[in-house]
Amino acid sequence: MAWIDDLVNLMPTDATPHEPTQQAWQHPTTNEQERFNLRVSKCGESECWEWTGAVDYMTGYGKLRWRNGTSSAHRVAWMIRHGQIADGLYVCHKCDNKRCVNTSHMFLGTHADNMADMVAKGINQPRQPFCRAGHDMAIHAIPHSSGTGRRCGKCLRQRQLESYHRLKQRA
Ligand SMILES: [Zn+2]
Ligand SMILES: [Zn+2]
User: Fold this and answer.
1) Ligand 2 centroid, distance to 147 Cα (angstroms)
2) Please, are residues 101 and 40 in contact by the beta-carbon 8 Å criterion?
């Protein structure tokens, strides 16, 4: 059956589809490091080094064009100093200054670490356990009408009831 042999010969020898090639880790080159350093206002070793380049208005982090896309300035700072950042890890700030690129102010953490750290520092407002009238906010809290923060729903209902009865008495 010669035609089958021909067909087999025509088939690609490597039948498995090519996996999309994962970009191999490459340490920031001297050129890339120089380009980065141009936008850093370096101060003392213990102080914050402010990123003077672009800032991502959504996240507040410094950003820069990096290889085929963009990257956060503090992540690039970390890569220059310490090398590759393992998948799924975050570069977190000890100093709470999102534009700071001083790696001695940073630590590697998971998403949970990052969130726990923000809560610990009160970046997510610490929640008051009771309202001014002493109602348990874990039960009565409702979102504030301004869209930020929360208020006591029990107090609100009481005020609404009082004004209702005042109006009723007048009627
Ligand atoms: Zn800092
Ligand atoms: Zn209340």
Assistant:
1) 19
2) yes
- Beta-carbon count within 10 A of 9 CB: 8
- Same domain assignment for residues 87 and 150: no
Asked if 109 and 161 sit in the same domain, the reply is no
Rounded to 5°, angle at Cα 123 from 147 and 145: 10
- What is the per-residue pLDDT across 130-167, written as a single tens digit (0 to 9) for each? 888 888 888 888 887 776 778 889 999 999 999 999 98
Please report which ligand is nearest the Cα atom of 74: 1
Q: pLDDT digits over 66-89, tens only?
A: 998 999 999 999 999 999 998 889
**93 CA → ligand 2 middle, Å:** 36
- Examine the domain organization and report whether 98 and 37 are in the same domain: yes
Q: What is the distance between the alpha carbons of residues 74 and 143, in angstroms, rounded to a whole number?
A: 34
Owning domain of residue 166: 137-170
pLDDT at 127: 65
CA 81/CA 76 separation, integer angstroms: 9
